[in-house]
Design the sequence.
């Protein structure tokens, strides 16, 4: 059977390794961490995944935590506005929740990646714990029919040139900070079901709250995305997790007091429950050339790394793994040459381009017609529902998000009383 090397054991690498294994391929998986190191390590993401991405996991019988993880049935949006009458100076100008057609779920990557890695090894896969360097890949590329680099945003991305035409940003667009907590109070807006909540604070950033399954059970994630140089870009150098949580809460109290009201009693889930950082959204050329002339194919974040503002990275990684799996299997015994590698990426890009366009648009200040749509969604449930389901299928935004005329035509068609163009 054909031999494939997968470098990097995250969402895409493990999903591909397990998928290929189920088709009988001989897979070697390189991971720079053991399952135990992952489990006891730092949180890595908020990893909320929507229906299509979860279905790819189910198709491979990999939805091991589905019954334990909170069922996310909606996606809510709040927009903060300065309000001199509010003690914090901000109140909520927009507040609605859209219902998802299929549930979303977040399973802490520490649990999922550790569990999937163990499953891969139990099923006879060759798991090698080693942080791969380019020189290793040079050597290995001669021994394998195909080398897939699924090492996320790690150093190996340097092998893949930046695609400037598809990468409009040259610097990070948000400063990220995450805290996993227990003890968040129920959401008064809809206490009967779970949802992800996006709180937009114009000019300042975004604050997300989402339920998750973590190493200590059910929890909630408090996730700030701060505009660089702004008041939420304040976590660099905050190394003590308790200080990180205090700062998170302070910013909530100021900019999203309705979320802070639920968070008075929260505590961190564990000693590694916080994360802060930033990165530049980047699309890369998919084929890397090794010093010895061998070729490797980039997977998921290696080739398309979007800002987590729209919660798409794990979704896109799952979609990429599913698409690459089909392309590999369909290729049979033929050589995995450069033309095949490019075609395989192009096929994935058909979906990833929508994710990228939408995420990059959301990083910019919202234009008037988008603000009009957010406002209308509070009165028109179908608009709220459609926006929420765009997180599962961002290609739908082409039809009602980017262009003021299309947005207004859509709002008029839905029957928005008082919704006018311009
Ligand atoms: C704060 C934050 C919040 C996010 N929230 C969401 C969200 O809500 N929803 C969503 O869909 N996405 C979210 N994402 C994005 C998502 O986590 C990533 O896009 C996704 O994990 C990418 O999957 P991947 O397989 O490409 O890489 P990863 O999951 O990053 O896996 C790469 C793996 O390769 C390993 N590795 C790196 N270098 C080497 C090497 N040289 N040798 C061996 N192994 C190596 C790494 O340690 C890692 O285990 C978020 C990201 C961040 C930072």
Sequence:
């Amino acid at each position: 059977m054909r031999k494939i090397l997968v470098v990097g054991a995250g969402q895409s690498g493990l999903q591909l390794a397990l998928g290929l294994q189920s088709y009988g391929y001989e897979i070697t998986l390189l991971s720079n961490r053991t399952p135990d190191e992952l489990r006891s390590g730092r949180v890595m993401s908020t990893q909320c995944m929507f229906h299509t991405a979860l279905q790819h996991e189910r198709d491979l019988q990999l939805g091991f935590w589905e019954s334990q993880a909170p069922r996310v049935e909606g996606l809510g949006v709040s927009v903060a506005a300065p309000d001199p009458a509010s003690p914090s100076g901000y109140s909520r100008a927009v507040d609605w929740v859209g219902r998802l057609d299929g549930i979303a779920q977040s399973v802490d990557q520490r649990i999922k990646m550790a569990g999937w890695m163990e499953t891969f090894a139990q099923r006879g896969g060759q798991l090698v714990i080693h942080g791969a360097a380019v020189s290793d890949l040079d050597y290995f590329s001669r021994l394998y029919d195909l080398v897939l680099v699924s090492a996320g945003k790690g150093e190996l991305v340097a092998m893949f040139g930046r695609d400037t035409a598809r990468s409009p940003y040259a610097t990070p667009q948000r400063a990220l900070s995450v805290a996993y907590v227990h003890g968040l109070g129920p959401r008064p807006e809809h206490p009967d079901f779970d949802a992800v909540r996006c709180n937009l604070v114009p000019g300042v950033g975004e604050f997300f709250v989402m339920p998750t399954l973590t190493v200590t059970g059910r929890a909630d994630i408090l996730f700030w995305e701060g505009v660089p140089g702004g008041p939420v870009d304040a976590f660099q150098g905050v190394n003590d997790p308790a200080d990180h949580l205090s700062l998170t809460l302070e910013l909530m109290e100021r900019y999203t007091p309705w979320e802070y009201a639920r968070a008075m009693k929260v505590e961190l889930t564990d000693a590694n429950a916080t994360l802060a950082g930033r990165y530049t959204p980047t699309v890369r050329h998919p084929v890397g050339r090794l010093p010895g002339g061998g070729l490797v194919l980039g997977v998921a974040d290696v080739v398309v790394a979007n800002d987590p503002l729209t919660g798409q990275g794990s979704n896109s990684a799952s979609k990429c793994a599913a698409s690459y799996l089909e392309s590999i299997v369909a290729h049979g015994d033929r050589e995995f040459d450069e033309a095949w590698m490019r075609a395989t990426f192009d096929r994935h890009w058909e979906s990833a381009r929508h994710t990228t366009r939408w995420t990059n648009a959301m990083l910019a200040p919202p234009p008037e017609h988008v603000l009009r749509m957010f406002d209308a969604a509070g009165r028109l449930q179908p608009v709220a529902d459609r926006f929420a389901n765009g997180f599962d299928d961002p290609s739908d935004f082409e039809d009602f998000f980017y262009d003021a005329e299309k947005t207004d035509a859509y709002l008029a068609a839905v029957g928005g009383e008082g919704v006018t163009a311009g």
